[in-house]
Predict the structure.
Amino acid sequence: MTQQPARRELSLNLFIHPAGHHEAAWRHPDTQPERIFTADFYTELARKAEAATFDAVFFADGPVLHDGVEFNSVGRLEPILTLASIAAATERIGLIATASTTFYDPYNLARLFSTLDHLSDGRAGWNIVTTASEDAARNFGLDSHPDHVERYARAAEFVEVATRLWDSWEDDAVLIDRVAGRYADPAKIHDVAFRGEHLRVEGAFNAARSPQGHPVLVQAGASNEGRAFASRYAEAIFTAHQRLSDAQAFYADIKAGAEALGRSRDAVKILPGISPFIGATEAGAQALEREFNELTVPEYGLRQLEKLTGVRLDHAALDAPVPPELFADAGDVTDNSRSRLQVVAGIVEREQPTVRGLLHRLAGARGHRVVAGTPEQIADTIEEWFTHGAADGFNVMPPHLPGGLDDFADHVVPILRARGLFRTEYEGTTLRDHFGLRRPASRYTPTAPVAEPGGADEESHTDEVSDVVGHEEARSDVPAVA
């Protein structure tokens, strides 16, 4: 009998941004900014997402206090520790944190994510960033921020070292042979012995291989370098697109790149961001969006626009049209080095907004797609992108928390389930199970196939590593997601 192919199923992550993804969320009476430094706020959100069978919760991060604290709740907790707290309060939902290859040491970071994977029974994911913030360097005793090439070269070595560390213990290295008095087989524990241009790590890892083999590798760069890294290493990609056609082109490019490297198209999940304002009617949803936009502080929005794109508009009248020539150097689709600038330039070209209108367009999700409509309309958008080669799922970015999550979980998720697009219950226990990703074989397994997803076979794991790696969105107040 011919085996039927597995039914394709949406992935949904809850992207947690303190009071919500709209920049004025903290000012709205339905949000709770006074709770953003408390454990129970995040465990409550994670439990709600788990009750709705989301794949994961995700925290962006950057080692710097972002500009604009006077006007927005930009402070945040360290994400890995926060996820450890969430792990203790949940059972199934995945746990994804951003961490920088520029300002961490690979041995320490590998331990943190390995520990999270062990303590959560296999639910950890690492969003790999290089940190684009110039301000971050001064927090680590540096006179200047490492340049783009240097950060990428270090990041490539970093990912290589981390995966070597996680593979250091073979899966059957732990014996627990009480009779013979042998806890582990040292022949199955390997030194990393890595010497690169930027990193040197000699010894073995100090923990057994974690439940997922290694945490899921997530990436958020849309530049040409980021796409090359994603095609080789990433198992999930967070990205931003305004139009279906742009998302389709990105999706096709990444999938083709993965196939060219001998990986399956299904080895990497592409997850654009979507920030939904949900109402009983379309007019009601649009009124809710306007309500939040009216709470924005233009001074803050102008600062964020400059960080996001490098374009200054503080000299322009708020109700005057945006001068399109200011975005003339965004480049074409073959040059993705300034991908978020291109997103904003596209909005300016298509919609010809006023300065205030552009600030409102970006206030909702910093260039990610904002949709205002009924639950059915939100589900329609998700289904269209999912079934037309633009997405394997979405990072759900509620404009306000906790209410925006409640609206999505209570009203959109049931529609997606009724259409057969989303699970009604978890079928597995790990983040890899939820994403439909296989557990990578250790490079030391004698008969191991190519370790897909996440890289190449043992022979290709040399010190001559790729010089590309995913990075966070440049010039953004949330530097972890594209």
Q: What stands out?
A: The radius of gyration is 22 Å. Residues 333-337, 450-482 have pLDDT under 50 and may be disordered.
